[in-house]
Write a structure and sequence with these properties.
The chain has about 210 residues and is mainly α. It is built from seven helices and no strands.
């Protein structure tokens, strides 16, 4: 049974994610790096890729909120919320970098959040081992996605690259944490469906 207090907390988290600039405890990676001059094409590429990463963090917040809302085990709930707090820092870093590049966030962030929250709730209802397994697979795919961005980002955009590299390290840690708490390996069709939906989201967020 869903706790009413959790619903209120979840609604508050949604508003904060979508309307309030995220805060970070850790120093933003690359903040001490020199801001190299980028060509217009390079700046547009970096902005678009960081917008995609920001959308990914919006989705992560929603997924974790949905998963923790329906998780049965209190320890699993704590694991999910710990990951969500670290993802909030990623949200802050990507938003800051988008602003530095003179770009904008995705217009579709409310849509991304709502869809991801619903998916997270369903994952939680399937049981804790599948809930954590879903978290682990999500983080694996995000880590792979970030590796691709490191190959695409301009070599001289040191600030963006530093952020993405630290995010990649954190995502790998979240996947390991989920598996260590009993996460199950997801069936291949589920993994494929996750990749497909992620591809649609990233391609759309690149432009919108």
């Amino acid at each position: 049974m869903i706790n009413f207090d959790k619903l209120i907390i979840g609604f508050d988290s949604a508003l904060r994610t979508l309307l309030v600039p995220a805060q970070t405890i850790r120093k933003t990676p690359g903040s001490d790096s020199f801001e190299n001059e980028l060509t217009n094409t390079e700046k547009e590429l970096s902005t678009a890729l960081m917008r995609v990463n920001h959308v990914g963090e919006v989705c992560a917040q929603a997924l974790y909120q949905g998963q923790s809302l329906t998780a049965r085990n209190e320890e699993v709930q704590k694991t999910l919320m710990k990951a969500a707090r670290e993802e909030t820092e990623h949200l802050a870093w990507t938003e800051q970098r988008i602003n530095e590049l003179g770009g904008r966030k995705s217009f579709l962030n409310p849509l991304w959040y709502g869809g991801s929250f619903a998916i997270g709730c369903v994952a939680g209802l399937l049981g804790d081992k599948w809930n954590l397994g879903f978290l682990a697979e999500t983080e694996r795919q995000v880590e792979e996605h970030l590796s691709g961005h490191l190959q695409r980002l301009p070599v001289n955009d040191e600030k963006s690259r530093a952020i993405v590299m630290q995010m990649k390290i954190d995502e790998a840690s979240h996947a390991t944490m989920a598996l260590s708490h009993g996460g199950a390996e997801l069936p291949i069709p589920i993994k494929a469906a996750m990749k497909f939906s992620s591809k649609i989201m990233t391609q759309t967020a690149y432009w919108v």
